[in-house]
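Can't attach files on this board, so I'm pasting raw text. These are the components:
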Amino acid sequence: GENVEQHPSTLSVQEGDSAVIKCTYSDSASNYFPWYKQELGKRPQLIIDIRSNVGEKKDQRIAVTLNKTAKHFSLHITETQPEDSAVYFCAACIKAAGNKLTFGGGTRVLVKP
Amino acid sequence: NAGVMQNPRHLVRRRGQEARLRCSPMKGHSHVYWYRQLPEEGLKFMVYLQKENIIDESGMPKERFSAEFPKEGPSILRIQQVVRGDSAAYFCASSPSQEIRTDTQYFGPGTRLTVL
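---
Top answer:
Structure tokens for the assembled complex are below.
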């Protein structure tokens, strides 16, 4: 089955700096890659997603890149703010195989003011 | 425009009791997924259901766990004879019915199960 690795497990950045989280996946059939933000005690919140027919997607301060050949994808957060502090999860999905999401282990991001 | 609803938000059970977790998907969504999150860990897929059908239960433990999504009413995840290792947050997600968006999943607030 699919396996998703996520790095780093923790990331501390100064407010205003950029944060980058990287994920690799094992199944080349995966074609949908969402990113979720989870604050303590809250639900995972979808922040951005990318499908295999594009290489990059941007939404304000957040961008995601996908390299299908290398089987990795990354989340980039620019101009970080204290409210960006949370745990971020990447996931991979094979839509034709039933939509189940396989999650990475998560990255705890701390933005220091 | 209510999101995914789950209840109860917190559930305490003693070992050997049954736990019933409920999930109402977003309006217009007919696909429901259950995930389990152990403390300080990521989310693990359990089961994927559509109305009256289990599509994929590859992540469900073979014993004590069952799920349903009846024609009317919420989806229910049922855990019989709970053990301490069942203590976790259980999240439900739903996705739209439109073919091009069925993979986009929105999560509910979760049910935090504590087994004493």
